[in-house]
Design brief:
about 110 residues; Alpha-Beta Plaits; five-stranded antiparallel β-sheet; globular
């Protein structure tokens, strides 16, 4: 399986509700007909002075390069707990299984 990571910065969210860590992957799995599935989440430390920590939501899929667009399109259509993620989330991909953020490629925003 390959990796898609949705990175959320609490300083860029209208409502930094911790339920986002469940609602986002559940909705992505539903909309993608299980092409993309939850693979956990983690908190990521930020550099000094930046709001944080960041929340990374790990997703798994057979083809991250082909399927990350499903996530972007969903974020452009729907809000999550009052948050427009098309304006605040970052999406990273990797061909490796459960890859670390620093090894992934930023695909959104472009």
């Amino acid at each position: 399986m390959q990796t898609i990571i949705v990175l959320l910065n609490p300083g860029m969210l209208e409502n930094a509700d911790l339920d986002l860590r469940y609602r986002i992957p559940d909705r992505i799995e539903e909309v993608s007909n299980s092409l993309i599935q939850s693979n956990g989440y983690d908190y990521i430390d930020t550099e000094d002075g930046d709001p944080g920590p960041l929340m990374g939501i790990w997703l798994e899929t057979e083809n991250a390069h082909r399927n990350w667009h499903i996530v972007r399109d969903l974020f452009q259509r729907e809000k999550f707990i009052g948050n427009d993620l098309s304006l605040s989330a970052q999406i990273y991909i990797s061909e490796k299984d459960t890859d670390d953020l620093e090894n992934c490629v930023l695909v959104f925003p472009e």
